[in-house]
Specification:
The protein is of the alpha/beta class. The chain is built from ten helices and twelve strands. The chain folds into two domains: about 50 residues, Spermidine synthase, tetramerisation domain (Spermidine Synthase, Chain: A, domain 2); about 220 residues, 3-Layer(aba) Sandwich (Rossmann fold). Helices cover about 30% and strands about 30% of the residues. The protein binds S-adenosylmethionine (SAM). S-adenosylmethionine binds next to strand 5, strand 6 and helix 5.
Amino acid sequence: MELWYTEEHTPNVRFSIKVKEQVLSVKSPFQQIDVFDSEEFGRFFTLDGAIMLTQHDEFIYHEMIAHVPIATCPAVRSVLVIGGGDGGTVREVARYRTVESIDLVDIDKMVVDVCREHLPFTARGLEDGRVRLHFEDGLKYIRRFTDFYDLIIVDSTDPFGPGEGLFTSEFYGNCFKALTERGILVNQHENPYYANYSHAMRRAHARIKEFFPICRVYQAHIPTYPSGHWLFGFASKKTDPIADMDAAAWNALGIGTRYYNTDLHAGSFMLPNYVKEQL
Ligand code: SAM
């Protein structure tokens, strides 16, 4: 008997992965957490039915969400990751010895516990000595900080359910306040293709632009995310993601990556016309 995991991307589009085994199915106080093994993508986990990451393609998302901002501003010392309880983003940030502190704020401790047990390839990032874990709503956490973080990465679920507050003007305004003068905000920015996601992306981008003088969008191709065309927001107080990125300096660090490189860094900000029109 064949078993398939199916995610609804729109009422008319579904994405299915053949499953070898369902490893876990639990409900936290915030969301349904399921873990599977598959032929094509290895181990993967979902929250409320949406794929969060798969073993075989998570490198794309986690490299792009972490290396683009830090290659742009190597002086980053204090980092805040909101969401990201699987540890993949933290794993990539922790590759920079110059980073001194990494606060991870995830509303759901059960996600961290499940990923530590079943997805060690990303959760191992959480074991770095510079990581401090906080289990609370990122919307509330960020209110407590002024001029404190050099980099804030919002690696959240989509803008409904627990993640909804992380796409509000209040949240982006507090991120601006919490960032230092060289501060950068990067966020997972949904996809430009399907109407429901595109609407969320446009709304988030307009809200970020209310606060940040530099507000750009870059892209990556992620096979298991809706439409495969995924966007990231890049906002900063004064750092330009292309003009200020020193490719030779980043390459001299010798950080081996499977997706990110400094050519792709610049290219990822060159968006298709239909996406530029949305912004
Ligand atoms: N890369 C994935 C994506 O793009 O959809 C996100 C992965 S990560 C697992 C998403 C995390 O955001 C979850 O662990 C969830 O618990 C967390 N989260 C959702 N809403 C949150 C909130 N308001 N504050 C902090 N964490 C939140």
